[in-house]
Amino acid sequence: MNERKQHVLAAARQLFLENGFAHTSIQNILDEAGISKGTFYNYFSSKNECLMAIIQQSWEESAILRNEIAAGKPDGPEVMGEQILIRLRLNREQNLLPLFDAILSSGDEELRGFMKEIHLSELAWSESRIVEVYGEWTRPFAADAAILQFGMLSQFLRFSAILDIKEDFPVIISFILRRLEVILRDLAEHNEFLIPPGRFSNTVSLLPLPDVDETADRIVRLADLLPDEQRSKGLEYSGFLSEELASERPRLQLIRTVAGPFRKLFDGTPHASEARSTMRDVWRVVRDRSGAAEKPDEF
Amino acid sequence: MNERKQHVLAAARQLFLENGFAHTSIQNILDEAGISKGTFYNYFSSKNECLMAIIQQSWEESAILRNEIAAGKPDGPEVMGEQILIRLRLNREQNLLPLFDAILSSGDEELRGFMKEIHLSELAWSESRIVEVYGEWTRPFAADAAILQFGMLSQFLRFSAILDIKEDFPVIISFILRRLEVILRDLAEHNEFLIPPGRFSNTVSLLPLPDVDETADRIVRLADLLPDEQRSKGLEYSGFLSEELASERPRLQLIRTVAGPFRKLFDGTPHASEARSTMRDVWRVVRDRSGAAEKPDEF
DNA sequence: TTCATTTTATACCGACAGTCCAATCATTGC
DNA sequence: GCAATGATTGGACTGTCGGTATAAAATGAA
Predict the structure, then answer these.
(1) Which residues form a coiled coil (chains A, B) (predicted)?
(2) A residues 74..103 contacting B (CB < 8 A)
(3) Confidence grade of residue A292 (pLDDT, cut at 50, 70, 90)
(4) Does the beta-carbon distance from A105 to B101 stay under 8 Å?
(5) pLDDT score recorded for residue A234
(6) Residue A195 located in a structural domain
(7) Are B244 and B290 in contact (CB under 8 A)?
(8) What is the DSSP letter of A72?
């Protein structure tokens, strides 16, 4: 993604969260980003598309962090809680929730479809994580449980927003997860379910898969941008990652462990955003090649 | 409320649900209702206000039906389920949910405030009903449980809408209510809660309370409009209701029982909508006089 | 009949998303 | 250094919409 385009996105995001989507005109964005109307419509075909790009970016960013956080530790409800937390934090920092709301109305069919995919991908993630974390016996109920959990959580958040309550997220999340457990046991006990497993994951991905070789290239080129004292370290990482990426069956766990530290090398450098964007594509490729069907993950 | 204004509201509602709020222009409404722009802005100060009027109307209508359904039967989870069902049905028939979404964005501060009140009133209703239905021991957890229940339900509905699933409402509701029970037991067992009781009900009502005597008058005048063969029956009802209304402490249960059949007399007559509107005010007055604090109900 | 209110019809305003295009700038191959 | 190609600019322009303004017409009560 073009650097300039990134800049425009950043400006637009800034304005959207300051003034809200509806109250931000395209002219505002042009002024803030210092570009002309023609350029804007070169990048995005509409204001809506610009909004979608912003949301998608943040969404994928949180997906990256979720993957990184899972690396190393033994899996369990706490990890799942942290993964949920990540998205909440990102949502708050970037104030995404109002933007989601903005999408819901707006009548635009494309936007609604986009939202639907995001929504389903989150449910699919939740469903598969529930099975991973709580065990295979939860599979028949995981879809229902995912919906219930997601609903409880978002309702709590919305309520907190309405009344300006400053509950910290971890408290809410663990509260919800404890309810989730008891619900799962209850569902199993009465063998009750409404939504069959796997109902969410028939989504098509939002973007076409990036090219493998090109992505592998990108990693190496990325490492070259590091300051001298880190470059050798970075090149080690990037060499390994690009090999692994191009291999027949990338070793998911290894990549998980290495990708996080590698990306973190770029924190604070001018290439942090380029690093994030590259790693997004890496994850996409990796998930695809390591068999997306077996492990439905984000996007 | 003016008959003509009602007509405009009906036309607007029709268009909103056919084409969505965003895709309905004021001009469309004018054409559909056969009025001029000036008249429209006599009735509503803006398109938003028109939307609010529509939602409020439906909302109160379902509140009336909820009250009516509670009459007679012994209270319990089934009654609560039916009461929830009523709102869902009305929401679906009148396709309100997209209109709610429309409100969420739109940036308009007044609309958001309106939505917030509706939301809180629903939570307050749920909280108080939970205590009534499941017992006093649930009080400390009822607020949390209300949020969780509302969240689970709306998430299920949203999901059904997204995937065009035709689960019937009763199945979903009883599914949710069973979860609610087990959650309540769990919360009590661990003595866990986040939101203290009564947090929702500090809402101000959306409309000023109607005048008592005037409302009592209205009931009697209303009964006069009935066709000959029903008038005597109607007058009996209306006489009782207006007395009860004006009394120091209206007997809530009695009124509950009588109000429904009385209103139903007008079904199919040209005054059905006038009857509904009158009964809305009756309920408001009654709830106020029978001690709203003790029994926080709708609005 | 008179007088006040409501309704109509229409012109108008400003804001906005989105289109179009000719002029300009930057990059790259030669 | 030059030419060609493509990105960028800036602004004029269109059409839509929500909302205002107002003069004329209709309605209705005294």
Answers:
(1) none
(2) 98, 101-103
(3) very low
(4) yes
(5) 75
(6) no
(7) no
(8) S
Q: For residue B107, which amino acid is it?
A: G
SS3 of residue A51 by DSSP: helix
Using the predicted structure, report yes or no on whether residue B117 has a pLDDT greater than 50.
Answer: yes
Q: Considering only CB atoms, which chain A residues are within 8 Å of B172?
A: 194
B141 is a domain residue = yes
Nucleotides of C under 7 A from a protein CB: 6-11, 15-22
Whole-number distance in Å between A220 CA and C30 C1': 32
User: Does B185 lie in the same domain as B71?
Assistant: yes
Same domain, A176 and A132: yes
* B287: pLDDT strictly greater than 70: no
Give just the sign of the alpha carbon dihedral A53, A54, A59, A64. positive
Nearest-CA distance B168 → chain A (Å) = 11
Question: What pLDDT, in 10s, does the model give residues B97-116?
Answer: 777 766 766 667 788 888 88
Distance B54 CA to C3 C1' (A): 36
- For residue A76, what are its two tokens? 């369990």
**CA-wise closest residue to B238 among B216, B260, B266:** B216
pLDDT digits (tens, 9 = 90+) for A200-228: 876 545 555 667 777 777 777 777 777 76
Whole-number Å distance, CA A35 to C1' C22? 18
Flag residues 27-46 of B with CB < 7 Å from strand D: 27, 37-38, 41, 45-46
* CATH label of the domain that carries residue A103: 1.10.357
State whether A19 and A107 are in the same domain. Answer: no
Best of B154, B166, B168, B182 to mutate (most A CBs within 10 Å, chain A): B182
The three-state (H, E, C) secondary structure of B218-255, written as one string: HHHHHHHCCCHHHHHHHHHHHHHHHHHHHCCCCCHHHH
Q: What is the mean pLDDT of residues A25-50?
A: 91
Residues 27-86 (A) near nucleic chain D, CB < 7 A: 34-39, 42
In terms of domains, do B63 and B171 share one? yes
Q: Report the domain count for chain A.
A: 3
> Beta carbon of B26 within 7 Å of strand D?
yes
H or E stretch covering B11: helix B3-19
Rg (alpha carbons) of chain B, rounded to whole number = 20
Judged by average pLDDT, the poorest of A169-173, B68-72, B266-270 is: B266-270
Boundary-marking domain end, from B158, B190, B222 = B190
| First and final C-alpha spacing in chain A | 18
B47 touches strand D (CB under 7 A): yes
Q: With beta carbons under 8 A apart, name residues in chain A contacting B148.
A: 152, 155-156, 179
Q: Is any Cβ of chain B less than 8 angstroms from the Cβ of A163?
A: yes
Q: What is the pLDDT of residue A293?
A: 40
Is B268 found in the same domain as B219? yes
Do B252 and B145 reside in the same domain of the chain? no
Residue after which a domain boundary falls, among B138, B155, B190: B190
pLDDT in tens, A53-103: 998 888 888 888 888 888 777 888 999 999 999 998 888 777 777 777 667
Residue with minimal CA–C1' distance to D10 is: A36
Higher pLDDT, B32 or A96: B32
| Rounded-to-integer distance, Cα B77 and Cα B181, Å | 10
Averaged pLDDT, A124-141: 94
Residue nearest the C1' of D16 (CA based): B25
B49, part of any domain:
no
Q: Provide the domain limits for residue B221.
A: 212-289
